[in-house]
Amino acid sequence: MTQYSDDRVQDQQPGLESEMSPKPEYHPRFPGAGRLDGGVAIVTGGDSGIGRAAAVLFAREGAAAVAILYKNEDEDAEATLEAIREEGAEAMSLRGDVGERDFCMDAVSKVVERFGRLDVLVNNAAEQHAQDEFEDVSEKQMEDTFRTNIFGQMFMVQAALPHLKEGASIVGITSVTAYRGQDMLIDYASTKGAILSFIRTLAHKLAPKGIRVNGVAPGPIWTPLIPSSFPPEKVKEFGKSSTLGRPGQPNEVAPSILFLACEDASFMTGHVLHPDGGAMVAD
Q1: Residue 76 exposure: Cα atoms within 13 Å on the Cβ side
Q2: Measured over all CA atoms, what is the biggest interatomic distance in the chain, rounded to whole angstroms?
Q3: What pLDDT is stored for residue 223 in this prediction?
Q4: I want to staple 269 with a disulfide (CB 3.0 to 4.6 A). Which of 204, 212, 237, 277 is the partner?
Q5: What's a Pfam family in this record (predicted)?
Q6: Who's near 81: CB < 8 A, 6+ residues apart?
Q7: CA–CA separation, 155 vs 63, rounded Å?
Q8: Domains (ranges, CATH) in the chain?
Q9: pLDDT at residue 11 above 80?
Q10: 92-140, pLDDT tens digit by residue?
């Protein structure tokens, strides 16, 4: 079994994939089948982790262009752009904070201006801050977590809607914590519950326009959020309590995102997929 490092805990959010040990697995595992042929996608938090894996998989599946939004992880973002281009798609990155509405509006406008369309939006960007005691969760931490995790998804949808046509797809990343909670991540889990409700409500709202809205609720996945959130002893044991006895990899989540984004899921909206290592949840 892979040993997850306990000596490279990071002190900044959302964390750097380039500093992780071992490195997350993001490369697609299978040949592409053209399921996003010619499409244009935006992936928030696309510099690393699940976002990177989804962006690269989209490129392998024939997307004409994939744009990634990221906060400040320049080295990780460059690596993702290179991986997208190696798969044959055009790539674009935009640096900024999805918790700021103006950035979201500007980013979407720049993507559409450059590539002429927008077909898929993946709302993946998130932050989390572990606290042993809920009393220690500051007002600022609450505001930051909600602004990034749920406000950011709402802002991105507002920015994207004028450009999304019938057949377009929105995929929101929620979490197993929305269903089961997590006692060190109360504010984070609460935002993921809000995202779940947002997905389901938005699915009804946009169905008459032919725009599908679905979600993915990962379990313990080895991404930069882990070493940048938890103390060394938690990082070392991360994911071992899952039914499969290990954490998942980003490239084990990306296929769920792809499925919901493409026409394979043409009769699905308002649903959530659960790549979570076997956690029993009520959908």
Answers
A1: 29
A2: 51
A3: 78
A4: 212
A5: adh_short_C2
A6: 68, 91, 92, 93
A7: 24
A8: 27-273 (3.40.50.720)
A9: no
A10: 999 999 999 999 999 999 999 999 999 999 999 999 898 899 999 999 9
**Tens digit of pLDDT for each residue in 222-237?**
877 677 666 667 777 7
User: What residues contact residue 122 under an 8 Å CB cut-off, 6+ apart?
Assistant: 41, 42, 43, 44, 46, 51, 54, 170, 171, 173, 257, 261
Confidence check: pLDDT of 1 > 90? no
Token pair 């006895």: residue = 245
Take residue 34 and report the two structure tokens written for it: 């053209």
Single-letter code of the amino acid located at 50: I
Judge whether 218 and 249 are in contact, CB under 8 Å.
no
Q: Is 26 a catalytic residue?
A: no
Smallest CA-to-CA distance from 119 within 221, 229, 43 is with 43
Q: What is the pLDDT of residues 160-174, one digit of tens each?
A: 999 999 999 999 999
Q: Do the beta carbons of residue 36 and residue 110 sit within 8 Å?
A: no
Mean pLDDT score across all residues of the chain: 91
Q: Is the peptide bond before 14 cis (omega within 30 degrees of 0)?
A: yes
Q: What is the DSSP string of 101-113?
A: HHHHHHHHHHHHH
